[in-house]
Design brief:
The complex is a heterodimer of chains A (about 120) and B (about 110). Chain A is mainly β and about 120 residues long. Helix content of chain A is about 0%, strand content about 55%. In chain B, about 0% of the residues lie in helices and about 55% in strands. Classes of the chains: A mainly beta (about 120), B mainly beta (about 110).
Chain lengths: ~120, ~110
Amino acid sequence: QKEVEQNSGPLSVPEGAIASLNCTYSDRGSQSFFWYRQYSGKSPELIMFIYSNGDKEDGRFTAQLNKASQYVSLLIRDSQPSDSATYLCAVNTRGRGSTLGRLYFGRGTQLTVWP
Amino acid sequence: DAGVIQSPRHEVTEMGQEVTLRCKPISGHDYLFWYRQTMMRGLELLIYFNNNVPIDDSGMPEDRFSAKMPNASFSTLKIQPSEPRDSAVYFCASSFAAMNTEAFFGQGTRLTVV
């Protein structure tokens, strides 16, 4: 079982709609959760992180965490064509036999926002 | 700060040749990570360093891969000998800590082994 699972998509939404991206993880000891955006041919860049159960809002973006269900999501309100990219979910988990963490990435969900 | 700097940006080499990828982390970051990204496997952690010391190399695919960090501002990932299946984008990233902090990525090196 992979540590972090995402629907690969593609997810296609019209401009102005809400895009919903989902992620599940396997390690209940995971402590922090990140959403990265990656444009084609570019490197990943951080959008948001969340540590606690519940919602965290930043502008048009809302991250949601449910540790009991081992589920993380990202909502993008008022989607714009410039949001078209691959969204990577990343989970920080302590490595096996280690006190330090590893950041596991999902394979990403490709989002297309059409005008 | 210029961010994480990787070189070269693109590398095309023949099977069997040695390949060396280079990375300069952000100044003051104590952690450096090497990732590999492919369509099939996504973004995989190969190895990471803390204060120039390798901490976890369990992601290194095989002995053909080696990584070093001789000082706080420089790291290399070497593949010898290279194989076509090593073709991927290799990213270097750095951060203040291993847990609960953002990792900043370099622009990546696109490696093609023919």
